[in-house]
Inverse folding.
């Protein structure tokens, strides 16, 4: 039991519940509930976006990856960063100008609302659920380790808190929880980096020399290793991470919370500043951990240096916090990590619940005849449902190695969501038939190939060798989705398809100038 | 589909086409600027790892790989900054001008 950690964590919970209560007073319309009334500034949204992207799995995982693999960890970081400028150049302002509550709004804007919404909402739910499982399992393990609370109770606790944030406070509460957490994370991460680098006189040379001297790879630590050695699998990972970002529903949804395209762009600048800085800091933190944690028997099971780390491979950053700042700092960082999980889970749940209520219930089942008040009520019920499903899945997947789920989420986002979204913004020729078949082919092909990949077929299901040789199928499935969309749209000669193509002109005006875009409500 | 006549006036505004072209050119140039070095780096990692591993000079452990990887992040950030500056500055002025002229 770490009393400092529990105290700091309870403080965070109290603070965020206060935020949620205040947010509930300001949430009156559906617009408030789904998009905080478009009243979030670029700076605030930038922090919230950074918060959504830097989950506890990212924070702990990247540091551990650098700790284990050095330079390969840095390459991983670059891939997860490069998605941001790409999203900005391709879609940030168009998202704001064309979207309303979910990214599916943009796809169905000039296309058949029923079939396209149905398909795109399904694929966004798949991405959200995959991501949620990872977060729930991570939360359970972290809480069990740091606070000594049983795994099942920890998962239920996370689920319950998240349901309160989302149902009571909607997007306003979710955003402010995310901002609070992002600031704490930036502060905690910076402090960890400074404390760690102080051991090396803030010199890269000293740090690198010591890390190379004690790491089992020796000088190869700072050279390309085995992770990206195969060009096809490396390129496929690049495609998945870079394009997958622009298909993550909970990230895309954040762009509807700002008042206009200028603020949307500003939020990407703020977010990528925070993310780039944190990622590079994690590289330094990981290298420092090689020297500080990697040579200290206190952090290994049975005191065997080089053996198994206490609490598993993901705990490197936590051990470093305890080594450099004692129990108090460990408690603080543990509270931040848990806060991170709570905030990311809330954002994911809101994205999933709005896909159910706004896209499937209001758009498909009621064909747009429902009122916004009913839509919000359905969202709250959907939130409870997703919360319960997430808790059950979290318990069911206890103890599994879930790295492949993150890979799967990014591959599905890149293969199913990204192609249709980008073409709906840029290509006049896109038709409903193309969109529906495009999403379907991206979704089915990426899920199937990950299932047949070494990560699942061999490591999870225990077959001797995998049917599909690469862990990331995006290099094949993204072009496939584009091709299917192109062919199905091209050979769609129906009258509806003609009307859809003609509607592109009006859409382009809105995309470029924001004329007719969903307006921000004033508070 | 003529959703509104203002939309049609904006679309026919002489500077609207210019706006679309300038924005597309900017996005395309910056996409290449950010993605080309990144893809080159990843291909170099797969094909020529030993060249990335050599220290820049004998007294340092810093190698080309680390410089290029950190450089890609910094370049991505700089391109982001430049795009936001231009799109929220010159291009946004153009948007406002088109909107006000077409609104009358």
């Amino acid at each position: 039991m770490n009393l400092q950690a529990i105290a700091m964590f309870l403080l965070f919970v109290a603070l965020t519940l206060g935020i949620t209560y205040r947010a509930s007073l300001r949430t009156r319309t559906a617009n408030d509930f789904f998009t905080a009334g478009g009243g979030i500034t670029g700076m605030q949204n930038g922090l919230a976006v950074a918060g959504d992207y830097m989950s506890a799995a990212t924070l702990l995982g990247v540091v551990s990856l650098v700790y284990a693999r050095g330079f390969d960890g840095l390459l991983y970081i670059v891939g997860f960063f490069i998605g941001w400028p790409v999203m900005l150049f391709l879609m940030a302002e168009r998202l704001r100008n064309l979207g309303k509550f979910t990214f599916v709004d943009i796809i169905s804007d000039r296309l058949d609302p029923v079939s396209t919404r149905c398909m795109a909402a399904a694929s966004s739910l798949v991405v959200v659920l995959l991501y949620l499982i990872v977060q729930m399992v991570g939360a359970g393990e972290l809480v069990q380790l740091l606070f000594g609370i049983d795994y099942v109770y920890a998962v239920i606790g996370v689920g319950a808190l998240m349901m309160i944030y989302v149902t009571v406070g909607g997007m306003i509460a979710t955003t402010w929880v995310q901002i609070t957490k992002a600031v704490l994370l930036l502060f905690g991460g910076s402090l960890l980096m400074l404390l760690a680098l102080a051991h090396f006189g803030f010199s890269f040379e000293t740090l690198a020399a010591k890390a190379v001297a004690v790491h089992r790879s020796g000088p190869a630590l700072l050279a390309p290793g085995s992770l990206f050695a195969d060009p096809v699998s490396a390129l496929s990972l690049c495609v998945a991470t870079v394009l997958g970002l622009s298909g993550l529903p909970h990230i895309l949804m954040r762009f509807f919370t700002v008042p206009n395209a200028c603020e949307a762009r500003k939020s990407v600048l703020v977010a990528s500043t925070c993310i780039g800085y944190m990622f590079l800091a994690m590289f330094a933190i990981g290298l420092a951990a090689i020297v500080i944690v990697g040579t200290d028997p206190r952090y290994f099971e049975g005191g065997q240096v080089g053996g198994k780390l206490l609490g598993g491979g993901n705990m490197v950053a936590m051990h470093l916090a305890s080594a450099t700042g004692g129990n108090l700092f460990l408690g603080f960082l543990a509270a931040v990590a848990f806060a991170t999980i709570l905030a990311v889970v809330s954002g994911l749940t809101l994205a999933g619940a709005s896909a159910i209520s706004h896209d499937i219930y209001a758009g498909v089942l009621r064909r747009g005849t429902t009122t916004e008040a009913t839509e919000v009520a359905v969202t709250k019920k959907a939130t409870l449902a997703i919360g319960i499903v997430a808790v059950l899945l979290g318990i069911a997947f206890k103890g599994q190695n879930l790295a492949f789920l993150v890979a799967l989420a990014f591959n599905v986002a890149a293969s199913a969501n990204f192609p249709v979204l980008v073409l709906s913004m840029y290509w006049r020729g896109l038709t409903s038939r193309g969109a529906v078949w495009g999403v379907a082919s991206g979704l089915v092909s990426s899920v199937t190939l990950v299932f047949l990949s070494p990560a699942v077929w061999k490591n999870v299901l225990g077959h001797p060798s995998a049917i599909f040789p690469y862990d990331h199928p995006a290099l094949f499935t993204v072009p496939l989705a584009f091709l299917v969309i192109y062919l199905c749209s091209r050979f769609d000669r129906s009258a509806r398809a003609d009307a859809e193509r003609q509607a592109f002109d009006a859409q382009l005006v809105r995309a470029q100038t924001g004329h007719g875009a969903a307006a921000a409500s004033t508070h | 589909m003529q959703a509104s006549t203002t939309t049609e006036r904006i679309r026919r505004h002489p500077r609207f086409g210019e706006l679309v072209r300038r924005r597309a050119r900017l996005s395309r140039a910056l996409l290449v600027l950010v993605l080309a070095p990144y893809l080159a780096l990843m291909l170099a990692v797969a094909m020529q790892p030993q060249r990335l591993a050599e220290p820049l000079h004998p007294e340092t452990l810093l190698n080309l790989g680390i410089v290029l990887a950190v450089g890609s992040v910094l370049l991505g950030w700089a391109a982001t900054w430049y795009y936001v500056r231009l799109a929220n500055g010159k291009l946004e002025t153009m948007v406002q001008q088109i909107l006000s002229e077409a609104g009358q």
Q: What stands out?
A: Chain B has a mean pLDDT of 90. Chain B touches chain A through 55 residues (CB under 8 Å). DSSP finds five helices and no strands in chain B. The radius of gyration of chain B is 22 Å.
